[in-house]
Amino acid sequence: MATPRRAFVRSEFSPSLAPPLSVGGPFGWVRANLFNSALSSILTLASIAFILWITPGLVRWLLIDAVWSAPDGDACRAPGSGACWAYVRAKITFFTYGAYPRDALWRVDVTLAMGAALAVWLLWPDWPRKGVAAILFFAIYPHVAFILLHGMGDGSRAVVNAAAGVFNSEALRDFARDGIPIIGTHLWGGIFVSLLVATVGIVVSLPMGVLLALGRQSTAPFIRFFCIVLIEVVRGVPLITVLFMANTMLPLFVPDAWTPDRLLRPLIGVALFASVYMAEVVRGGLQAVPRGQLEGAMALGLTQSRMMRLIVLPQALTIVIPGIVNSFIALFKDTTLVAIVGVFDFLRAIDTQRLDPAWNGPTISTTGYAFAAMFYFVFCFAMSRYSLMMERRLAHGRKR
Amino acid sequence: MKSFCTSMVTAVASLSFGVVAAYAQAPAPAAPTSKTLEQVKARGVLVCGSNTGLAGFGMPDDKGNWTGLDVEFCRAISAAIFNDPNKVRFVPLSAKDRFTALQSGEIDVLSRNGTWTISREADLGLLWAGVNYYDGQAFMVRKKLNINSALELSGASVCVQQGTTTETNLADFFRANNMKYEPAVYATSAEAVKQYDTGRCDAYTTDMSGLFSERLRLINSDEHVILPQVISKEPLGPAVRQGDDQWLNIVKWTHFAMLNAEELGITKANADERVKSTNPEIRRLLGSEGDFGKSMGLTSDWALRIIKHVGNYGESYNRNIGDGSRLKIPRGLNNLWNKGGLQYGPPVR
Question: ipTM, 2 decimals?
Answer without folding.
Answer: 0.71
